[in-house]
Amino acid sequence: MRRLAYLFPAFPVLHQTFTLGEVLGLKRRGYDLRLISLKGSSEDLQQESARPLIRETLYAPKLASKPMAVSFMRALTRRPLDTLRLFGHVFSAWRQRDAERREVEESAAPSTLGFGERILAVYHSNPVVYLAKSLMLVPYAIWLAERLEEEGIEHVHSHWATYPTTVAYLVRKWAGIPYSFTAHAYDIYMNSRMLPAKLEDATFVVTCADTNRRYLASLCGPEAGERVHLNYHGTDLGRFTPVDHSRGEAYRIMSCGWLKEYKGFHILVEALSMLVARGIDASVDIAGDGPQRAYLERLAAELGVADRLRLHGYLEHGELSRLYASADTFALPSIVMGRYGRQDVIPNVLAEAMATGVPVVGTDVGGVTELVEDGVDGRVVPERDPQALADALEDLWRNPQRAQEFGRSGRRKVESIWDRENNLDELCGIINKNVADRVEAGNSSLASGASNKAGQMMEAEGRAASPITVS
C-alpha cells in the first residue's frame, strides 16, 4: 500500500522546508499522499514548489464551523458513549505521569522575549492549557475519521508530536485506523504530556536526531521504544553544492532562521560587536524574519554595529543559496529556552551551509554535535556565550586554511548522513516495513480467511446435496 494520509498542524509552511522536501520526495517515489492540514494556508510567502500542494491539501474546517458541528452531532447521535470516551482518552493520556525528563536551567541573563512572546510561551507550555486545547481536538478527530473512511485510507502519518498526533491518536480510538508520527523539537520538549500514550499506541515513530530517539524511548516501554526510528531530515545536495568561498578584505558572517530568541541571534550580534572591537571588519547577514527583528535592530544600534547587521527577511531558495555562497562563515548560536521548551535539535540550515562548503559554528544544544564535530567538521561552542562564539569566529577568520578544511570536512559529513535522497529511501523502508507490509499481510490473511470460509461453505453445501446411502 502506497496511499496514506499525511497530517500536519499547518501545511505548507515557509520555514519548514524539511516537511516540504519529504512530501515532494515521497510523491516522486510513488506514494499517493492525502495531505491534510488542521489549519489553513496561503500562497503568500511560500516556496514556489509548495504552491501547487496547497490545492492538493484537505484543510480542516474551523471548530465553530457548520461542517464540524454536523459531524460531531452525527457522532453524538449514533455513538454517544464512544464520543464521550474520546474525551476520556484525552484526559487519561494527559494525566499519565511523565517519565523523568531533562530539566534545563534558565539563563541568569535577562530574557529578550517581549511581553506578547512571553504570554505566548506560557500559553504553549502550560499543561492545563494543553489539556483544554487537546480536548477541543475531539471533533477534529471525528471529522477526519469520516473523511479517511470515505476515501479508504488505512494509515495516518502525522508531523509534530503535539496536536496533529493527538488527532491521529483519537482517530485510531474512534475508527481503528493506525497511525505513526514524526517528532521534531519543541513538540517533544515544550510539553511531554500525552507523549507516553501516543508512543505506546503508534505503529512506529520517526525522529530527526538520536538525542530525540533516546529521549522518546525513555518515555515509554521497551517494546514501544524499539519502534522509535532515527531518520535525519537531509538536504538537497544537488541544490546546495560546494562553491569557491574566496575571501575578501571584510569578514562576511551569515546565519539563517526564524527570528526567535531560541535561535540565539542576539548572541551573534554581541559576538559581532566583539569582533569589531578586536579590529576585524566583520558583518552579519541573517536570512529570515520573526518577532525578534525590532529587538535585534535595537541591540545592534546600542552596540554600535547597526551598519554591520543586515536582516534580509524571508528569501527564496535561489536567493538563500547565493547568500550561502557569499559567506565566509555560517554561525547559528542556538540556545535552549528552559521551561518554555523551545530549542533547536539539528537545524537544517547548518547542514545546508556545510553542503556549500562554508565552515560553520554551532552550539552544544540538542543534536548539533551529531552533525558538527568540534574541530573536525566545524566549531561547537557553549550556548549563551558570546565570548566563546566571538573567539571561534575570529579563529576561523585568522586561520583561512583551517576554515577551508572545516568546509571540506563539513561537505563530506552531510554527504554521509544528511543526503535527503538517501534519508528518504530510509524513510520509505520504515514506512513499507511498518505500514505497507502490515496492510498487505492483513489483506492476505483476510483473503486466506475468506477462501477458507468459502471452501468450508462449499464443502457443507456439497454434503447437503449428496444422496444419502443406506448400507
Q: What would your notes on this structure say?
A:
This protein has 471 residues and is an alpha/beta fold. The chain has two domains: 3-236 and 422-444, 3-Layer(aba) Sandwich (Rossmann fold); 251-417, Glycogen Phosphorylase B (Rossmann fold, 3-Layer(aba) Sandwich). 51% of the residues lie in helices and 13% in strands. It is built from 20 helices and 13 strands. It has a seven-stranded parallel beta sheet, with helices on both faces. Strands 10-9-8-11-12-13 form a six-stranded parallel beta sheet, with helices on both faces. Helix 8 (163-175) links the parallel strand 4 and strand 5. The longest helix is centred in the C-terminal third of the chain and has 46 residues, at 420-465. Mean pLDDT is 88; it is low at 99-110 and 439-471.
